[in-house]
Each structure stands twice: as C-alpha cells, then as structure tokens.
Automatic annotation (TrEMBL):
Protein name: Glutaminase
UniProt signal peptide: none
Organism: Ramlibacter tataouinensis (strain ATCC BAA-407 / DSM 14655 / LMG 21543 / TTB310)
GO MF, one annotated term: glutaminase activity
Reactions accelerated catalytically: L-glutamine + H2O = L-glutamate + NH4(+)
Documented EC number(s): 3.5.1.2
C-alpha cells in the first residue's frame, strides 16, 4: 500500500463529501420517534489511523445514537466475560439473509439466533450480560464503550425512553427467546440493557475510534489502552465481515471487502485491519437500514484507497 499523508487523506475525504452531499435518496428512520428528528442533511466522515492520525470532514459536531453499532461491542464484552463457548451455545455465527429485526429464524428447528449482529442475537447477548451480573451489566457495558472512545459516554434519555416505549418487535423477540429457553425470565431488564446500548450518544469520530481500535488488535490508538484481547477482536471482525451489514452483507463483502457495522441512526463504521478505522454519518437510510451516503462514501473510498482485504485485482 502506498503511504498516504494526512493532507492527501483530508483532500480525498473532502472530495467524497463534496461528491455525495447532493445525494438525497433514502429516508431517516421513523420507527422510533426520536430518530425521526435527525437532520437529514447531516453528513460527516472520519478516519483514525492505527498510528493515532485523525482526519475529519463535514459535520464533525453532529451527535447521534450508537444503535446497532453497539452490537459488536456488546458481543466482545460477552466473549470477555463468559468465554467463547458459553456465548456460542446460545448464539450462532451464520449470516441470515434477513432484515436486522427478523424473527423468522427463531421459528426454525433449532431455536437459536443466527448471529450477534442482528436483534435476536444482540438481545440474547444482552441477556447473557445481564444474567452474568444482574445490576452491573449496564455499568460494565458503558465502561467497555468508554474504553473504545477514550472518554465518558452517556445515554440519550429521550431516545432510550422512545426505544423502550415503541420497541414492540424487540419485545416480541425477547418473549420468543424466553419461550424457547434461550434467555431467562428477566425480559424487562434485558430490553432495558439492549435499549441502553442502542441509545448511547456518539459522534462520527467516536465511530472511527471504535473501528481504529479494532483495526489495531484492540489497542485504542489515542489512549494506548488495550481495550480487548486480540483473539476477541478477531471474533468480532469475523462476524462483522459476514453479518455486520445484515441482508446486504454479501454485497458489502463483494464491493467493499471490509468488516463493518451500520446502525439505523445513520452511522457506518468500517475496519481496515492493521491500518485504520473509518466512519460515515448521514441519517437517510436505504431499505435495509444502511446510510445511503455512508454506503456510497465507503464503496468509493474502498476502491480509491484499495482497501479490500483481498487485494486490488
Ligand atoms: N434500536 C434499534 C432496534 O433494535 C437498533 C437497530 C439498528 O440500528 N439496526 O430496533
């Protein structure tokens, strides 16, 4: 890979921001009232190198909630606290080809969520964290997220209330999981924890810091702190690669070729192992719940900087 200086990287990101700011396809998520209030024009791109180099363009001050981008982080915490075997007795490692909030796979012969990146799997992870440490799981999760960000983090209270009040699908998933014996009876506490992780307030740079920490084998590039053991980071990246983009994970792997995770707030983070973390925020979503501009920027950047894990071809 040619070594790129910060000025070149900044110019490239600025050019992409310019190229895609006129892209107005998609819709801001409306199924949670609080998400619908996001500014549809907000648009930011951030890059953090494993050497700690930071590049930001666009609306760097925009704040939004972590949503499904919390799923790999909660999964990593569960691996750390319970071990790989205990976690994967309850949750699989297969992509679904279904939407993020699908329940169909729970009705199959083996009643086990396919993977931790979809809601059924993430709610199961939340249950494992809650059951391992009732009353302390939220604090542990917040500490884990703070270690990636290198700063304190808080929940956006209106979003948290909004998620809990309107999350009927997630409630249904949790009850089905309990019905099939995958999770225990403490459904309210589990949904509270899952909603909390979705409601944590972040900016685009924070997403890039998460991605850069994963790119750096678990070492946060600015604080130098080892957030998570490299073996667990490997597990997280494997599942982000195959399952992080839900029912478009295959196309994403084909066109971008990087582990990634999106959230319905409009963020996408992508990991270039050994090199950098990338993040885009723009709230208009496609039909699969991915940021339209985020997809466009990361596809273009992956091609331009030759980022695919499998080389340039
Ligand atoms: N809070 C959202 C939900 O569970 C998170 C989904 C997402 O970002 N895809 O519905």
């Amino acid at each position: 890979h040619p070594r790129m200086n910060t000025d070149d990287a900044t110019a490239d990101l600025q050019a992409l921001h310019q190229r895609y700011r006129g892209l107005r396809e998609g819709r801001v998520a409306g199924y949670i009232p609080e998400l619908a209030k996001a500014d549809p024009e907000a648009f930011a791109i951030a890059m953090v190198g494993v050497d700690g180099r930071v590049v930001q363009v666009g609306d760097s001050e925009a704040r939004f909630t972590l949503q499904s981008m919390s799923k790999p982080l909660a999964y990593g915490l569960a691996l750390q606290q319970l071990g790989r075997e205990a976690v994967h007795r309850k949750v699989g490692v297969e992509p679904t080809g279904e939407a993020f909030n699908s329940i169909v796979e729970l009705e199959e012969e083996v009643h086990r969520p396919y993977n931790p990146m979809i809601n059924s799997g993430a709610i199961t992870i939340a249950a494992l964290l809650h059951e391992a440490a009732p009353g302390q799981a939220a604090t542990r999760l917040m500490h884990m997220v703070q270690a990636y960000l290198g700063r304190p983090v808080t929940a956006d209270e209106p979003t948290l209330r909004s998620e809990l009040a309107t999350g009927h699908r997630n409630r249904a998933i949790a009850h089905l999981l309990h019905h099939y014996g995958v999770i225990g009876p403490d459904i309210q506490a589990v949904l509270q924890l899952y909603s909390l992780q979705c409601s944590l307030q972040v900016g685009t740079l924070d997403l890039a810091l998460v991605a850069a920490t994963l790119a750096h084998r678990g070492v946060q590039p600015l604080t130098g702190r080892q957030v998570l053991a490299p073996a667990l980071v490997r597990d997280m990246l494997s599942l982000m690669f195959t399952c992080g983009m839900y029912d478009t994970a295959g196309e994403w792997a084909y066109t971008v070729g990087l582990p990634a995770k999106s959230g319905v707030s409009g963020g996408i983070l992508a990991v270039v192992p050994g090199r950098m973390g990338l993040a885009v925020y723009s709230p208009r979503l496609d039909a699969h719940g991915h940021s339209v501009r985020g997809m466009a920027v990361l596809k273009a950047l992956a091609a331009q900087w030759r980022l695919s894990l499998f080389g340039t071809g």
